[in-house]
Design brief:
The chain is mainly alpha-helical and 436 residues long. It has 22 helices and 7 strands. A 4-stranded parallel β-sheet has the order 2-1-3-4. The model has no long low-confidence stretch (mean pLDDT 95).
């Protein structure tokens, strides 16, 4: 474990408001400082946030959640801050009591979904700033205890919920028995290396069998690494750069060890954003391989004629757009093209695509026990979209979304199956010649 990662985990034992404030200021570089100063208090972000919409609590206005970071910046680094401090006009120091209160605002009531960013007339990336503010909270020891524990497990075992290689190996063996297909492990020189999230491994292991059928059909070589297979990055979610970098380095080392051309990010939104968009900056170097999300790869295979689909699901299906894939990641069209290929009756939700509401559990919220009640309440916005679609089944391309949606659907007394898009594509592959 790196010294920086250890320091983050140790910070929770002795929370330090000054350490948090120093990190707030360090994160407020030129672009972030400009955005912190640019808010005109129009309230547009309030109407975009599902937490504010369902509670009406003014503390849940997205830009308000940045108040401690803004105060620290204005006191220490803003233009004329030294003069203002000398004259007694600077904001007071951020206190531990304030940060304990703001912990619930920056973590429990924010999914980093970016819907607030989408509507801001000043172009402020509010979600991005919350991500930076979490760096200060984590460094100072003010992130939720559940996230520190998950980070410790991830650094120790490789997984935030403690999934080790023997557990994945067992799931692979079960899927090989189920499909009759070999799942290649640690194959050097394979074109694609697939990484998985713990939620998929333990909650939806059938995706492993689906991948085996898909890669066989596409005629593509692939492998799963026995070390570095975990895609979930709790460091990015909690705001711990050193933790995030160490977890990412394990995937990169596996890809380089196996000399693969492409790493396939799984059905997990934050895993995709961490690996593809934040990874090179966190590690300070470019990858020697391509990163592609599984939905993006499936769409590519279909358009190239390498995956041929036959038959369609007759149910009225609607697709939940994972925020980190669609709104933040730019994969707006690929999932819906795939849906058109496997659904005879696709019904898009109102606001589908970039404006879709979050499932409520992203950004680490699903791992915070104290946030459960608020998460279920926030699902009301998603429920309205689902109900308006008239869907008989819900499809998504994120294992965390799938898990959160299933829990919320049960909590709200709904009867609605939740399906994985990768498995749906595998179900409707054209039978191979000679297959029974």
């Amino acid at each position: 474990m790196t010294e920086g990662a250890r320091a983050v985990l140790d910070s929770v034992k002795a929370p330090d408001a000054r350490r948090a404030a120093r990190e707030f200021v360090a994160q407020a570089g030129r672009d972030a400082a400009f955005q912190l100063e640019a808010c005109v208090h129009c309230g547009q972000c309030a109407d975009a946030c599902h937490f504010h919409l369902v509670t009406g609590d003014p503390r849940h206005v997205p830009i308000y959640k940045l108040r401690p970071m803004l105060k620290a910046y204005q006191r220490e680094a803003a233009p004329f801050s030294s003069v203002k401090k000398a004259l007694g006009l600077a904001p007071p120091e951020v206190t531990a009591e304030e940060l304990h209160e703001w912990s619930e605002l920056l973590y429990d009531s924010c999914n980093l979904c970016g819907r607030c960013t989408l509507v801001c007339p000043m172009g402020i990336d509010i979600a991005g700033l919350v991500r930076l503010a979490r760096e200060g909270m984590a460094a100072g020891g003010f992130a939720p205890a559940d996230l520190y524990k998950a980070a410790a497990r991830a650094l120790d075992t490789g997984s935030p919920i403690g999934v080790r290689w023997p557990a994945l190996k067992r799931q692979i063996e079960l899927q090989e028995r189920e499909t009759g297909l070999r799942v290649p492990v640690d194959v050097e020189g394979a074109e694609y290396m697939v990484v998985l999230s713990s939620i998929e491994i333990m909650g939806f292991p059938e995706i492993i069998g689906a991948l085996a059928r898909i890669f066989r059909h596409a005629g593509a070589s692939w492998t799963i690494p026995s070390a570095g297979f975990e895609a979930t990055n709790i460091g990015v979610q909690m705001g711990a750069r050193d933790v995030a970098a160490e977890l990412l380095s394990r995937i990169v080392e596996a890809a380089e060890r196996l000399k693969v051309k492409c790493v396939v990010s799984p059905e997990c939104g934050h895993a995709y954003s961490a690996l593809r968009w934040e990874g090179p900056n966190l590690l300070g170097r470019r990858y020697a391989f391509e990163v592609v999300q599984i939905t993006e790869l499936l769409d590519r295979f279909v358009r190239e004629g390498r995956l041929r689909l036959r038959g369609k699901d007759a149910r009225r299906l609607t697709f939940h757009d994972p925020c980190q894939l669609v709104r933040r990641g730019g994969l707006a069209e690929a999932p819906h093209r795939l849906m058109d290929g496997v659904s005879a009756n696709q019904a898009r939700m109102p606001g589908a695509g970039a404006a879709s509401f979050c499932c409520g559990g992203g950004g680490g919220v699903s791992a915070i026990h104290r946030a459960e009640g608020l998460r279920f309440a926030a699902f009301a916005c998603k429920k309205q979209q689902i109900d308006a679609s008239g869907a008989e089944a819900l499809v998504t391309a994120c294992g965390n979304c799938r898990n959160v949606l299933e829990e919320a659907i049960e909590h709200h007394g709904m009867t609605l199956p939740v399906l994985g898009l990768t498995e749906l594509v595998a179900q409707y592959l054209e039978p191979e010649t000679g297959a029974g």
